[in-house]
Design a protein that fits this description.
This protein has 225 residues and is mainly α. The chain has one domain: dinb family like domain (Four Helix Bundle (Hemerythrin (Met), subunit A), Up-down Bundle), CATH 1.20.120.450. Helix content is 46%, strand content 2%. It has a two-stranded antiparallel sheet with strand order 1-2. Helix 1 packs parallel to helix 4 and helix 2 packs antiparallel against helix 4. The longest helix has 24 residues.
């Protein structure tokens, strides 16, 4: 899916936008290659199932945007009891686009209105910075790990395309609509002419449907577990 990319004026802002875009493409890849029977399968113990995990990820993003960038488009939450894989993919694509806009305003150097990151109503706001991006990515990576583990435990191991696909960032960026990631133009130079580390590590690997707005539910409580 090609996504309109926001204008950013700093290397950090461009990196944040592309990193979060790759992050959401990982979510999309997981759902795409997940056995349909795993979506509603009941996991052992008192833990969230896979459908509940993905709807939780979307709903927490909605909270981040609502608290941190209330001037952006208000998103509806997903209902974990009724959400289908197709609805989850559409919702995640839409909330990812809003998060990308939020990150671009916060870190893009364009004088945007995002000055504090408010991850929850009880939490102390943070000044915008790389910590904001790290927190958002860590939350989603935590839950992706849960999905991979639960799928295996319940007898629905992920296809190789999903496992390898999460590491093919060039492909993930291309699917999002970027040219292919942090391409260097000359020694140690990126397209915006900022200097970058010449020892850049390259990640290598093998190798949405229309938005859906189900009836809004109450706030998704908590971000962990």
């Amino acid at each position: 899916m090609s996504t309109r990319q926001p204008k950013v004026h700093t290397q950090l802002g461009r990196a944040a936008v592309q990193i979060f875009a790759a992050n959401d493409r990982m979510n999309q890849t997981l759902i795409e290659h997940l056995d349909p029977a795993a979506w509603r399968a009941k996991p052992p113990g008192k833990v969230r199932g896979i459908a509940a995990i993905f709807t939780h990820m979307h709903n927490v993003r909605c909270k981040w945007v609502r608290l941190t960038a209330p001037h952006l488009k208000v998103l509806r939450q997903l209902n974990r009891a009724r959400c289908t894989p197709q609805q989850a993919r559409a919702g995640l694509a839409e909330s990812a686009a809003r998060c990308v806009e939020m990150l671009a305003e916060a870190l893009g150097g364009g004088g945007g209105r995002v000055e504090k990151f408010r991850r929850d109503g009880w939490a102390r706001p943070w000044p915008v910075g790389v910590e904001m991006l790290c927190y958002m990515i860590a939350h989603e990576a935590h839950h992706r790990g849960q999905v991979c583990m639960l799928a295996h435990q319940m007898g629905f191991p992920l296809r190789k395309e999903a496992g390898y696909g999460m590491w093919d960032w060039e492909k993930l960026w291309k699917e999002w609509g970027a040219a292919g990631g942090p391409e260097l133009n000359g020694a140690g130079k990126i397209s915006g002419s900022e200097e970058v580390n010449s020892n850049r590590v390259k990640v290598r690997g093998r190798g949405a449907p229309a938005p859906h707005n189900p009836k809004e539910r109450g706030e998704d409580n908590g971000e962990c577990g």
